[in-house]
Amino acid sequence: MDKGLTNLILELTKAQRIAEVDHVQTLWSGFGSLDRVLLESSNVNSVVIKRIQPPTKMNHPRGWDTDVSTQRKLKSYEVERRWYENYVPGLPEDIKVPNLLGYYENEDSTTLIMEDLKDSGFNHDFYSSPKDSFEACLEWLANFHAFHLFAEPSGLWEIGTYWHLDTRQEELKVMSDGALKHHAKNIDETLNSCEYKTIVHGDAKPANFLFSKEGQAAAVDFQYVGGGCGMKDVVYLMSSALDEKDLFERDSEIIERYFELLKLALGKYDVRNIDLDELKEEWSSMYKYAWLDFMRFLEGWSPGRSRLNSYTKRLLESI
């Protein structure tokens, strides 16, 4: 590691030395790496560092190696840093995310130094207990959306989610002609017309959650956090975690449970001056549009994906 980065980690953690650096994963399209830094003689066992270092040669898994794509990714890392700096310190304990300890910059990279959630007791992944984990994710989203209801996404994406139409014009252009492409703008405008807006995670898939032994969820990866309708996060979680059979059988049950958890969270955070029935009616009406908004992205980005199935086709036909 860079000597300056090493010294900063030691200073922030009061560690005597760095014992080991374990590679966790490479960032999407080779834009850097996520590593776990093991420490000696510190009050924490480890920290996680997210090093953003754009590659000299782009290597997108699906060939989207354009300047537009590169600039979107670079902005996403700036948004994530602002999120950790400006929003995370005010979060309640039951909306668990890593704390930012500091950041380090040199001429070719920026590194976020963060709390290691595994060192804080979040050692379990989604697939060790899918049903319980899904419920914990749904509760985390309900808490997150309730706490940020009507919050302005200052410094974040004005409209959150990584598939937002304004940022995905290249994918729209290559779509085959059809209903999703024809109505893409109308779907987007409908979602953005919500009276009840919150801040959305923007990439709420199972891989971005960890779980404590007590079953509490913690979320990571806030590159696409921003304003919008909370239903977009719920739909993306469902699309990522459930198969077609589960979607047909459980969709109504899941949405009803989400609103039960949202009601509890609004009371817990003492969110006032809202009509809960009106919020539920509005966001429920956005369910189909949120699905189709994401399907529009998939159709352009990667045609033939399994999430483009008979369930989503039925939603399209119903609208």
Walk me through the structure:
There is one protein chain. The protein is α+β, with helices and mostly antiparallel strands. It has two domains: 3-115, Phosphorylase Kinase, domain 1 (2-Layer Sandwich), CATH 3.30.200; 122-318, Alpha-Beta Complex (Aminoglycoside 3'-phosphotransferase, Chain: A, domain 2), CATH 3.90.1200. It is built from eleven helices and ten strands. It has helices spanning 3-13, 67-86, 130-147, 169-173, 179-182, 184-192, 231-241, 244-268, 276-285, 287-301, 310-318, and strands at residues 17-26, 32-40, 46-52, 100-105, 110-115, 122-124, 198-200, 209-212, 217-219, 226-228. It has a five-stranded antiparallel sheet with strand order 1-2-3-5-4, sandwiched between helices. Strands 6-8-9 form a three-stranded antiparallel sheet. Strands 7-10 form a two-stranded antiparallel ribbon. The longest helix is centred in the last third of the chain and has 25 residues, at 244-268. It is globular, with a radius of gyration of 20 Å. It starts with a helix and ends with a helix.
